[in-house]
Amino acid sequence: MRQQPHTRRQLWPKWLLLRRLNQLMVFITFAIGPWCGWWLIKGNLSASLVLDLVPLSDPLVSLQTLMAGHWAPTLMLGGGIIAVMYGVLGGRSFCSWVCPVNVITDAAAYLRRKLQLPKTTTLAPHLRYFVLAMVLALPLLTGVLAWEWINPVPVVYRAILFTSISSLWVLVLIFLLDLFISERAWCGHLCPSGAMYSLLGKLSPIRMSVQPKSCDRCMDCFDICPEPQVLKAALKGDQPQLTASDCSLCGRCIDVCHQDVFHYQTKLLVTTKVTPQHSNNSPRTADKAEINP
Fold first, then answer.
1. pTM, 2 dp
2. Region of poorest pLDDT, from 4-18, 41-55, 134-148
3. pLDDT surpassing 70 at residue 274
4. How confident is the model over 51-66, as a mean pLDDT?
5. What is the arithmetic mean of pLDDT over 4-22?
6. Residue 170: band (very low, low, confident or very high) from pLDDT cuts 50, 70, 90
7. Rounded percentage of the chain residues whose pLDDT exceeds 70
8. Nearest-CA neighbor of 60 among 141, 159, 131?
9. Residue 259: which of 1, 8, 2 has the closest Cα?
10. 284 backbone dihedrals φ, ψ, rounded to 5°
11. Do 157 and 30 touch, CB atoms closer than 8 A?
């Protein structure tokens, strides 16, 4: 049974609003070129050029190009810059703070909660790494960047900026998959870009810190988290941070937690190990965490 909250929740979901603002600002940065003729950045999230000088590219696109047998120095440099940037900021922060598909999958998750749709199909979180391997194998076998034909990230930008609707079926499919088939199926289980950024974020110093002693086992964080499996070890008291690189640093756990259990922090600031504190006659947070969220 859930315990009643002892303190008031935040009036506004601060981190959700900040993410939406950041996603909008990134989109506007790309949009003012074709819409207004002010070319601060040319291209899209797959590959772009900032001020006609600095190349940026999706590391997955760079790897696919290499696997296809092509050497493109500018593309490789751009992929390296992005890899280093998200290696520091937290690989999957791209997924929650930049990627436009996140808005679609968050909308599907919101509707699932409102409609109280049952969980029907459960997918393994590590399935995304097999999809990533397939995406990298395709250009090796065919010489073509086949994934980029249907990659939903540039599909969103093409649809809005250039009214290209030929690939919108990909976005509709992702929305329906997340809404009716499996919760967070795309971002949480299938997306190869998410798998790539998760690997890049393994050494990131930015983490979500946890104070398990403050947890009242309301389970709101499990309900809202797009990667609930990353919460278990920390809420058991086994570690002071969410160390799993699957965490997208979205901050939704902070927004919904009324006990201030979660905070952004860097590895360098953590000097002590959290020790589990459980009484013999009190249910452990770990026991609650064994529930499939």
1. 0.83
2. 4-18
3. no
4. 95
5. 75
6. very high
7. 87
8. 131
9. 8
10. -75, 145
11. yes
- Does residue 80 or residue 293 have the better pLDDT? 80
Q: How many residues are listed for the chain in this entry? A: 293
And the tokens for 124?
Answer: 């393994």
Structure tokens at 262: 């979660």
Q: What percent of the chain has pLDDT over 90?
A: 54
224-227 own/partner pairs: CB under 8 Å, 24+ apart: 224/252, 224/253, 224/255, 224/256, 225/252, 225/253, 225/293, 226/96, 226/105, 226/106, 226/109, 226/184, 226/187, 226/188, 226/250, 226/252, 227/125, 227/184, 227/188
- The DSSP result for the chain, as a single string, is -PPPPSSPPPSS-HHHHHHHHHHHHHHHHHHHHHHHS--SEEE-SSEEEETTTEEEE-HHHHHHHHHTT---HHHHHHHHHHHHHHHHH-TTHHHHHT-THHHHHHHHHHHHHHHTPPP-----TTHHHHHHHHHHHHHHHHSS-GGGGT-HHHHHHHHHHH---TTHHHHHHHHHIIIIISTTHIIIII-HHHHHHHHHGGG-SEEEEE-GGG-----HHHHH-SSGGGGHHHHHTS-SEE--TT-----HHHHH-SS--EEEEEGGG--S-------TTS--HHHHHTS--
How far apart (Å, rounded) are the C-alpha atoms in residues 240 and 272? 8
Higher pLDDT, 242 or 20: 20
Report the C-alpha gap between 153 and 85 in whole angstroms.
19
